[in-house]
Amino acid sequence: MATNTELVxxxxxxxxxxxxTRRWLHRRRRDQIIDAIQRFSLKVKQKRALEVGxxxxxxLPILAERFEEVIASDVEEVYLKHASLLQNIHPNxxxxxxxxxxxxxPEASFxxxxxxxxxxxxxxxxxxxxxxxxxxxxxxxxxxSTPQRWSPLELTAKIAFLPGIIxxxxxxxxxxxxxxxxxxxxxxxQVTHQLEGAGFHIHESFKSGMxxxxxxxxxxxxxxxxxxxxxxxxxxxxxxxxxWTQYYIAEA
Length: 252
Hints:
Blueprint: H1 4-14, H2 20-41, E1 48-52, H3 60-66, E2 69-74, H4 77-83, E3 93-97, E4 110-116, H5 125-135, E5 136-147, H6 152-160, H7 165-173, H8 188-198, E6 201-208, H9 215-218, H10 220-234, E7 245-251
Parallel strand pairs: 1-2, 1-4, 2-3, 4-5
Antiparallel strand pairs: 5-7, 6-7
Helix pairs in contact: 5-8
C-alpha cells in the first residue's frame, strides 16, 4: 500500500507524465477545475474558500489569489505539511486537520468549497457532501469532481494493480505508478442523488477525459488524438459514462 508521502509525490508528477494520455487526462481535469473556480468565484463574495483534501496543493494558489482567506482541510497531516510550503507565498492560507464527514469547522462560514478527487476515497460520501453543504453560506458554491465508476480508466486500473501485472505496468510507464485508493466510485446518477439529497441545487454538470487501454500506452500522440476526438463525440451523449471524470457546480 502506498504511503501518503508517495501519493503526494505521484500527484506532482502526473501533470508532467512522459505518457501523452496520462499527462493530458490530468491537465484536462486541472484546467476544468481552474475554469470553474475562476467563473464561479465571481458569482460569490470573495471572502472565504475551503479546499477539502488539497492533495499536492495545485489549486491552493488560485484560491488564495481570489479569496481573502483560504482554508485547506484534510484528515492526513502529510498533505497539510506539504501545503504549508505555500504559506510563505500566500499568508491568507490556513491549514486545518478536519474530517469533512464530521467537520468541526463553523457552519455557514464559506463562500466557495472545492472538493476534487476526494469523495471516491471516503466510504461515507453522503456525510461528506452533507458536511460541505452545512459549511457553505446560503448561495455558496461547491465545485466537485470525482471519477466515473464504469469509465475504462477505472476498470483498467482494477486489473493493472493485480499481482504480477503491476510490474508490467511500471515497466511500460517507467514513472511512479501507485494504487488509486478509490473505495467509493459512483455513477453520475449516484452523485447527483447525494448532492440533491444534501440540499444542493446543481448549476452545471459535465464530464471529460477519454482513456483507451493499450492505445494510451503504445500509440503515443496518435492515441491521444483519437482519445480527444472520442471525448468530443461522447460529451453530452448517452455514452458519456465512458469519460473518466465527472464535475459538478452546485449551490447551497
